[in-house]
Amino acid sequence: MVLQALRDGAVPMTLAAVSTAISLHPNTVRQHLEALERQGLVYRGKAAVQGRGRPAWQYESAGTDGGGEFPEYVGLSSALAAALHRDARRRRPDAIAAGREWGEDLAAMIPAPSCSEPERARAGAVDLLERLRFGPVTSTGSATVRLTRCPLLAAARQYPEVVCGVHQGVVEGALRHWGEPAAVVRLRPFAEPGACVLTLPSAT
């Protein structure tokens, strides 16, 4: 019922909007939304700020299979991951190397962060992760980023060395584009319930 309401909606919906649409208490809807998000079936993002206070969360369907609006690309990604996975010796380094090149290309296509130089690379990497719908959650002063969503969740569960290796490489490539040429990050897949944990290099 909750997922169908999001699929029927033309725009991302707040918790209150979903509750109204299906006539359920917000606490009940919140539990369903959290479960759907953990399964990769729902994306969560912050709404535009309106007045004082924190912006509300908005939710949208990730598609019928958790792969967003382009399930054919999810299938292609799984096929490529399977191909890389066959070589046990090379699967992870090749995945990271491919991700680095992709990350540099992606970083070159979005505006550079406006913050000061020491924080620019990290801020840019987090911004890129948000654009890619990883749902990054950061804490002030911490080098740890919790990734609460995965656009390729099914493939990541089946081929974690490949898919998660590419994702780690994407972050490293973005960091290098924004001035951290020797940056190496650590990505721990499924390290927490509902989240992977990414450790960025400390700002210098």
Explain how this protein is built:
It is a single chain. It is built from 8 helices and 7 strands. The protein has 204 residues and is of the alpha+beta class. A hairpin with a 2-residue loop joins strand 6 and strand 7 (195-199). The longest helix has 18 residues, at 91-108. The model is unreliable at 64-72 (pLDDT under 50).
Search tags:
49% helix, 204 residues, 3-stranded antiparallel β-sheet
Number of strands: 7
Indicate the low-confidence ranges by residue numbers: 64-72
**What's the tally of helices?**
8
Multimeric organization: single chain
Summarize the main sheet. 4 strands, antiparallel
Tell me the fraction of residues in β-strands, as a range: 15-25%
Largest sheet: spatial strand order: 4-5-7-6
Shape: globular
Could you spell the SSE succession in H and E letters?
HEHHEEHHHEEHHEE
Summarize the structure.
The chain is an alpha+beta fold and 204 residues long. The protein contains 8 helices and 7 strands.
Write the layout of secondary structure elements.
Layout: H1 2-8, E1 13-14, H2 15-22, H3 26-38, E2 42-46, E3 57-61, H4 71-85, H5 91-108, H6 117-131, E4 136-138, E5 144-147, H7 153-158, H8 160-177, E6 186-192, E7 195-199
Antiparallel strand pairs: 1-3, 2-3, 4-5, 5-7, 6-7
